Amino acid sequence: MDQSYKEEFCGIFQEHVTRPGGEQLLAWLEKTDFFTAPASTKFHCACEYGLVQHSLNVYHVLREKYFEEGDSEESFALCGLLHDVCKAQFYKISTRNVKNEETGQWEKRPYYTVEDAFPYGHGEKSVYLIERFVRLKPAEAMAVRWHMGGFDDAVKGGNFAISLAFDRYPLAVKLHLADLEATYLREHGTSEVRH
Question: What is the C-alpha separation between 195 and 191, in angstroms, rounded?
Fold first, then answer.
């Protein structure tokens, strides 16, 4: 088991998150599969430890590219590290038959499926889970809620709330851009199930 991702995540979290409930949130994460789960079924970081890798990647892009004077280290840590906390306890490993092209034999191969026990949405579910322990500031809640940008189902239905959120809360735009860069530029080609 690769502990380095978890150690880095916990180190950043403990250094920057001092709000009441932070320790309880981290303890809850330990009880879930957050530190071993994939970040997706077949796209970016679809591998063991993928979710924590992606969370760290988003935090690093957010911090390196978008941190400005007056920004909060705590806000950046909370949003970057926890924007996809909704994916804890979300993926399950199943198997399917795949034909081995070399031997012509069918073989069972693992793959990730979605088993959403609490179908509350994506960004809104992350906000809900974080706020069970730590009270978010309005800008943080907006950033986590809308980090998917145009990929969010609520936006596809013609919801203009995202435009208002991006207009009023620069952190929401910064988190969305960091998530895009981490997913499509830094994590390209990290999509195999490993054990």
Answer: 13
